[in-house]
Amino acid sequence: MVASVIKPTPNTDHDIKDLSLAPLGKQRIEWAGREMPVLRQVRDRFAQEKPLAGIRLAACCHVTTETANLAIALKVGGADAVLIASNPLSTQDDVAASLVVDQGIPVYAKKGEDAETYLRHVNIALDHRPNIIIDDGSDVVATLVKERQDQLSDIIGTTEETTTGIVRLRAMFKDGVLTFPAINVNDADTKHFFDNRYGTGQSTLDGIIRATNILLAGKNIVVVGYGWCGKGAALRARGMGANVIVTEVDPIRAIEAVMDGFRVMPMEQAAPLGDIFITVTGNKHVIRAEHFTVMKDGAMLANSGHFDIEIDLATLKDLSTSVTTVRNFTEEYRLPSGKSIIVLGEGRLINLAAAEGHPASVMDMSFANQALGCEYLIKQRGVLTPGLHPIPTEVDQEIARLKLQSMGIGIDTLTPEQVEYMNSWTSGT
Fold it and tell me: Annotated binding site for substrate: which residue ranges?
């Protein structure tokens, strides 16, 4: 009934599931916006100053309520933006519909889209001939560099907010193919301290619980990787009463995990002990054949790294006699021995596949970094050299200040005497 009156905004191309979902999406976008006061202040300033006017922008992100608020801020700032999904299971179809219908933003995203559709959408984003790319894993940038050399002259720069994407950008720069500036949003303090540790920590367990409805207390949870995401997952799992084991390849992170009170061991020792495994490395095949064969019957595997390659699912499927969907986002792989291994969310980001991703209050800071990163690229056009550049410290600190202000929290400031002392070498004890 609603579908008969809802039409796409004129001249707005799109490839989404159902325009009639727009009213629900609009309601949910507004709800998330209540928890994003920093981005709201950025958007209000953008509305006055229009810093992105005349800029063609392509964003490859998880199409969620939080991303929608970023997309709206970019459009308000003057950008001619298109949005595609960075993950086939994270798209919220009602959000995609609202962005098309209510905001006139072209969106190319469907929950559950296959790899062929995803790649087609990547090329549609590049057909927009963007000046700035907001990427999530660097697939759009990599496709540009490999297949669209003629468009490199259009590019002012890119922003990237995932560890996986930063690793790829560093490799591109090392190989001499990254010929434009890239803003490392991922390593901004107001991003990785909060998004990765608190956002991933909470939302990962949320996704596991929604997919399985299991009790975490008393379970052996193996956290594979102790970066900021791993720290968050381990901390929250322990808070839920789980016995946490950490596996690592980095000796510094491993000793940090030990000092934080977690058991640390190689995966070959952890594999027979774990009830639930959470991969958060950004690498491939960190759980593989030799681990599958020694796992407990009913061991559960979940991924909160970026791509669906951390668990070697192709080998697991080859080893299995059957694969059965037993719940939404929950598949049982039956091995010849008779025992089963449970894979959650198809090995994709479990917090977005089975839940709703990070809380909006966390993404508030991450997406403020994205919006201000785009503005910084424009202001520094012709000044920034090719390669990776950090978010300026003053921008990072301003985002933190605005967040504290929105929470009603004040902090001290240095006195003139203290400033002088901190900048002097002549004063001793």
Answer: 64, 136, 161, 191, 195
List Cβ neighbours of 242 (8 Å cut-off, separation of 6 or more). 216, 217, 218, 219, 220, 221, 276
Same fold, 2-187+357-406 and 198-348: yes
| Architecture field, domain 2-187+357-406 | 3-Layer(aba) Sandwich (3.40)
Binding site membership for NAD(+): which residues?
A: 162-164, 196, 225-230, 248, 283, 304-306, 351
CATH no., domain 198-348: 3.40.50.720
**Tens-place pLDDT, residues 146-171:** 999 999 999 999 999 888 899 999 99
Which pLDDT value is given to residue 404?
95
Residue numbers belonging to the annotated binding site: 64, 136, 161-164, 191, 195-196, 225-230, 248, 283, 304-306, 351
Do the beta carbons of residue 183 and residue 159 sit within 8 Å?
A: yes
Contact 184, 134 (CB under 8 A): no
Domain boundaries, the chain: 2-187+357-406, 198-348
Which portions of the chain are predicted below pLDDT 50? 1-11
User: What's the pTM value of the predicted model, to 2 decimals?
Assistant: 0.84
Q: What is the DSSP letter of 392?
A: P
